[in-house]
Amino acid sequence: MPDRTQALVDAIAARREDLVALTKDLVRMPTLNPPGVGYLEICQYLEKRLASGGFEVELIRAEGTPGDSDTHPRWNLIARHSGNSPGDTIHFNSHIDVVAAGRGWTFDPFAAEEKDGKIYGRGTCDMKGGLAASIIAAEAFIATFPDYAGAIEISATADEETGGFGGVAWLAEQGYFSPQRVQHVIIPEPLNKDRICLGHRGVWWAEIETHGRIAHGSMPFLGDCAVRHMGAVLAEMETSLLPALAKKRTAMPVVPEGARSSTLNINSFHGGLAEPEVEYTGFPAALVPDSARMIIDRRYLIEESADEVRGQIIDLLERVKNARPGFEYDLNEMWQVSPTLTEKSAPVVEAVAKSIQNVFGRAPEYVVSPGTYDQKHIDRIGRLKNCIAYGPGILDLAHQPDEYVGINDMIESAKVMALALMELTGST
Distance between CA 83 and CA 136 in Å, rounded? Predict the structure, then answer.
């Protein structure tokens, strides 16, 4: 490698202990979403660190967004470091929220234990390891190339796990991801250290409610059971819709293989009386349920349209209605995001691809994510197409028990990110 390139790679390697400590600190802050806790704490921690490195830091609350309240405010951080001359802005965006730990762990999910070269804990892979790697990459680059052109931004944003509406979506609406402000975006999601993720499938969420008539549970013939009506909807999904979706295939390089088909997940099901908000140990009342609700999570392909996806569900419900006396339903569309795909010829793709080649000695694999991430808002609201996901971690570990990130993977990904900064700023 040329001398300054080698100096940059060496600067990353020298920060290994710092990278490990930073990752552990971030994981030990249980920023669980929902409900959205600890956002201000983690933003203030990052503010202190980045400001000490010469970044101008803003802490921004997305007031009025879904989930935002005085109890659970949606705080975000954007830090900007300006070079010595005009040039492009390269932005690293990471979400700070993590999902619930769930059962099945053999490690404390918020202790950030280190074992066999891995750091275990909720959010290590998705995606606090990626956030830490991007910070180390930026700091090493700035130290090695203090005279660089352009600017580097690092953001830590809320609510990606619940749609990103209190994070990147809101910031994009305020102009923080406009092409006039930012030219290149890298999102360090865990897609593996030698892959470039060009985009994601589409998503359509909806709530279906079936209606019945309440009656005494000992005389169900005097009522009309909404849960049974919903059971007919489920049966129709099993026999007609799910087999049809499994046959749909995309040309997009979606990983893993099973996600190259259209999918439908039953996200939740609620029937009968609502469960009490406080702990209750008694028996339920003997009632025929007059309402059942189901939330569905439909992931669709770039070859499909949102209208087609919506129409499939409406057609299914109408078939059940025509076949089932007394069947009534409501369909409430919750949110929808179209598939997105960045071209391989985009400058950020080419820069990261060259960097992967330099670090690993091989060309990258180009993939598409099965689920959406915050690229959707940068594309749809910010109108910025030059955006990818690239970061350390194994995609399949996200949201799993004993989630971990490899320390060497973070180091190598940080090298790729730093070399991409060198390429995109024209530093030599």
Answer: 17
